[in-house]
Design goal:
single chain; 64% helix; MgtE N-terminal fold; 3 domains; mainly alpha
Length: 507
C-alpha cells in the first residue's frame, strides 16, 4: 500500500505542474495532476487514434482543416499545450464547444472542462445536454460546483439545481453568496413548468426621472450582469411603468426624457402562468423578453426568447410523441440517451390499446368469413380498406394534435370537429369510391379479363356492385377504422345462395 502511494506521489511530481494555467485553484490543480499522468497519456493516444478514424470519414472535417475537433483537442492534452487549448476554445462558439465536449468520454471531458477559462467553461456548460452536465456535476467538488453556479445566469442555475439531489442543492446554497442564495431560493419555490420557474431576475432597471443619457449610463453599469440589454424596464417601487428598447435610446436625443420614448402599454404575464402559455404569448407579440409579475402586481423578472424557444421545442417533442402513440417522459432526453426500458415503457401502453381494439375489426371480418370463401376476390380488397382507414386516422390525429398544441382547437370543440370531419369524409369517401370503381372495372375488364368468369358473369356489373360497396366502406374508413355496425345487424347469418344468381354462369 505504501509502495503504491509513493509511486503515485512520484508520478504527480513528474508532471510539470507549472505548465498548468496559474488561475486554476489548488484543489482542482491537484486533481488535474492526478488525471494527466503518464498512464492517462497512453489512454489519450488510443482515444486520438480512434477519433482520427472517425474524422477521416467526416466530410465537414476534411473541408475545414482548421476546425477544432476531438482528436486535435486531445493532442493538445498529450503535448501539454494547455495555454493553446485555452486560446482555441476561447474562439469557439459556446454551443459548438459544448457539442465538442459531449463527444469526449467522461474522464477526458472533465479534464478539458477544468482547463478552460471560467467564463468559457460556464457558457459551454449551459449548452450541454442533461446527461453531460450530470456527469460533470457528479465529478465536481463543492468549490467547482459553487463556482459554476455563481457564474451561470440565475434561471439556468435554478434549472440545474432542480434536477440535483436535495443534499447537493443544500450544500451548494450554503456555500453560495447571500444574494445568489436568496434569488435561487425564490426561483426554486415556484411551481415546475410555471413562468416563475422560467424567469430570471437579472434585468436592467431604469427610473422615470432619467433622460436618455442617464439611461444609457445605467445600462452600462447594470448590463454586465443583466440577461439582456436590448429591452430595458422602467420601474418605480417595484412596479413596472414602461419598456424602452436599446434602439429607441440610441436613436433619441441624449437630453430627451425617458417618459417621452418609453412604451407604457406593457404586456405581462403572471408567475403562476404555464410556461407554454408564456412562450405562445411571446411568439404572438414577437417579444424577445416578457416581463413577469407576481400575484400582487410586483415586477419580479423577465423571460427571454432563448428560454421560450426551449419550451416550444420541448412541447413540440411531447406533441410528436403523443401523435406517434408514445407516452411522453420528462426524464427522456435524446434517443441514445434514453434507456431501452424507458423506450419500451413509453410505447407499450398505446400499442396494447391499439392491438386489443383491432380485435373488434377481426370480429367484423370473421362475420363475413363465408362470403370470403364464396368469393375469394374480396380478400384482395382488405389491405386497401385497412390501409385507407389507417392513413385517414393518421391524417386526422396529426391535424388535431397540432391544432391542440397551437391552441387552434379546444376539447370543447369536439362536436364542431366531428361535424366538419363527417363532411370531409363524405367527400373523400365518394372520390375514393368512384376512383376504385373505375379501377375495378378496368382491371377485370381488360387486364384480368376472363380470369374470374367462374364468379362473375360480366366484369362491368361486378365493378358496379363493388364500386357501390367500396364507396360506402371508403367513407366509413375516413370516420372509423371499423365497418359500420349496421352491416352486422342486417346480415347476421350470411350464407351463399342455394342456387346461382342470374349473373353467375351455370355449372
Amino acid at each position: 500500500m505504501e509502495m503504491e502511494e509513493k509511486k503515485n506521489e512520484l508520478t504527480e511530481a513528474a508532471l510539470p505542474v507549472q505548465e498548468l494555467p496559474a488561475d486554476i485553484p489548488d484543489e482542482v490543480r491537484q486533481k488535474l495532476v492526478r488525471d494527466l499522468n503518464e498512464e492517462a497519456t497512453e489512454d489519450l493516444k488510443q482515444d486520438i487514434r480512434e477519433a482520427e478514424k472517425e474524422e477521416a470519414r467526416d466530410e465537414e472535417v476534411k473541408a475545414d482543416p482548421e476546425m477544432l475537433t476531438k482528436s486535435r483537442l486531445l493532442k493538445m492534452l498529450v503535448k501539454k499545450q494547455y495555454v493553446k487549448l485555452r486560446e482555441v476554445t476561447e474562439e469557439e462558439q459556446p454551443a459548438d464547444l459544448a457539442e465538442l465536449l459531449e463527444e469526449l468520454d467522461e474522464n477526458n471531458r472533465l479534464v478539458v472542462f477544468r482547463l478552460l477559462k471560467k467564463e468559457v467553461a460556464t457558457e459551454a456548460f449551459a449548452y450541454m445536454s442533461d446527461e453531460a452536465r450530470d456527469d460533470l456535476v457528479n465529478a465536481f467538488s463543492d468549490v467547482e460546483l459553487v463556482s459554476a453556479i455563481e457564474e451561470m445566469s440565475l434561471d439556468d442555475a435554478a434549472d440545474l439545481l432542480e434536477d440535483m439531489p436535495a443534499g447537493v442543492v443544500k450544500r451548494v446554497l450554503e456555500k453560495s453568496s447571500k444574494q445568489t442564495r436568496e434569488s435561487l431560493n425564490k426561483l426554486l419555490n415556484y411551481p415546475e413548468s410555471s413562468a416563475g420557474s422560467l424567469m430570471t431576475p437579472e434585468y436592467v432597471r431604469l427610473k422615470k426621472e432619467m433622460n436618455v443619457r442617464q439611461a444609457l449610463d445605467a445600462i452600462r453599469r447594470q448590463g454586465e450582469n443583466a440577461e439582456t440589454v436590448y429591452i430595458n424596464y422602467v420601474v418605480e417601487r417595484n412596479r413596472l411603468k414602461g419598456v424602452v428598447s436599446a434602439r429607441d435610446l440610441l436613436l433619441a436625443d441624449p437630453d430627451t426624457p425617458l417618459v417621452d420614448i418609453m412604451d407604457d402599454n406593457v404586456v405581462t404575464v403572471k408567475v403562476t402562468d404555464d410556461q407554454e402559455y408564456v412562450a405562445r404569448e411571446m411568439q404572438r407579440y414577437d417579444f424577445t423578453a416578457m416581463p413577469v409579475l407576481d400575484n400582487e402586481g410586483m415586477f419580479v423578472g423577465i423571460i427571454t426568447i432563448d428560454d421560450a424557444i426551449d419550451v416550444l421545442t420541448d412541447e413540440s417533442t411531447e406533441d410528436m410523441q403523443k401523435m406517434a402513440a408514445i407516452l411522453p417522459d420528462d426524464d427522456a432526453t435524446t434517443y441514445f440517451g434514453t434507456s431501452v426500458w424507458t423506450h419500451a415503457k413509453q410505447r407499450i401502453p398505446w400499442l396494447l390499446i391499439l392491438m386489443l381494439s383491432a380485435t373488434f375489426t377481426g370480429m367484423v371480418t370473421t362475420h363475413y368469413e363465408e362470403a370470403f370463401v364464396s368469393l375469394p376476390l374480396l380478400v384482395s380488397f382488405m389491405p386497401m380498406l385497412m390501409d385507407t382507414a389507417g392513413n385517414c386516422g393518421n391524417q386526422i390525429s396529426t391535424l388535431m394534435v397540432r391544432g391542440l398544441a397551437l391552441g387552434e382547437v379546444e376539447p370543447a370543440d369536439f362536436l364542431k370537429v366531428l361535424a366538419k370531419e363527417l363532411r370531409v369524409s363524405a367527400i373523400v369517401g365518394a372520390v375514393l369510391g368512384v376512383v376504385n370503381g373505375l379501377r375495378i372495372y378496368l382491371m377485370y375488364t381488360f387486364i384480368f379479363a376472363g380470369q374470374y368468369d367462374n364468379v362473375m358473369a360480366t366484369p362491368s356489373s361486378s365493378a358496379c356492385r363493388c364500386s357501390s360497396a367500396l364507396s360506402w366502406q371508403s367513407w366509413w374508413a375516413v370516420c372509423c377504422p371499423l365497418p359500420p355496425r349496421s352491416w352486422v345487424r342486417t346480415r347476421p347469418s350470411w350464407r351463399p345462395p342455394s342456387s346461382p344468381p342470374s349473373w353467375m354462369p351455370a355449372a
